[in-house]
Specification:
two-stranded antiparallel sheet; 6 helices; about 5% strand; about 50% helix
Length: about 130
């Protein structure tokens, strides 16, 4: 299946996305006139296959005793939605160089999905228990 091939997809933590958007709103770039037309790709530093990210998330939840009772293995017999089918073959690798140079020169708070998922777990684990 396409999931096993490992098509990389870029993603970004909501805090880094928020910081980049706020920074873009504050930029005053007189060199090219209208800075409102400038576009930035928002992404972390590690495009990774969805299956890799899901496995890491599964391991985090399992290590914290937060794994849901209905796991993906239990759902394996059901039909996939069109969105789920697209996710298995999507390739969304994004270059974040301009974002980091112009919007986040001090770097990302969460440079990969690993730091991002750990932060999401840390913030939410008490209410997920």
């Amino acid at each position: 299946s396409a999931m096993k091939v490992g098509y990389p997809t870029s993603r970004i933590h909501e805090e880094d996305a928020s910081r980049a958007i706020l920074s873009a709103m504050l930029i005053s770039d007189d060199s090219d006139g209208d800075s409102s037309c400038r576009r930035y790709n928002l992404a972390d530093d590690n495009p990774a296959p969805r299956s890799e990210v899901m496995t890491f998330g599964h391991e985090l939840l399992d290590a914290s005793n937060l794994l849901p009772s209905q796991t993906p293995q239990m759902l394996s017999g059901r039909r996939l939605s069109e969105r789920e089918k697209r996710r298995r073959t999507d390739r969304k690798r994004v270059d974040n160089k301009l974002m980091k140079e112009c919007l986040l020169p001090n770097g990302l708070l969460y440079p990969t999905y690993r730091e991002g998922l750990k932060a999401v777990l840390d913030i939410n684990k008490d209410k997920w228990r």
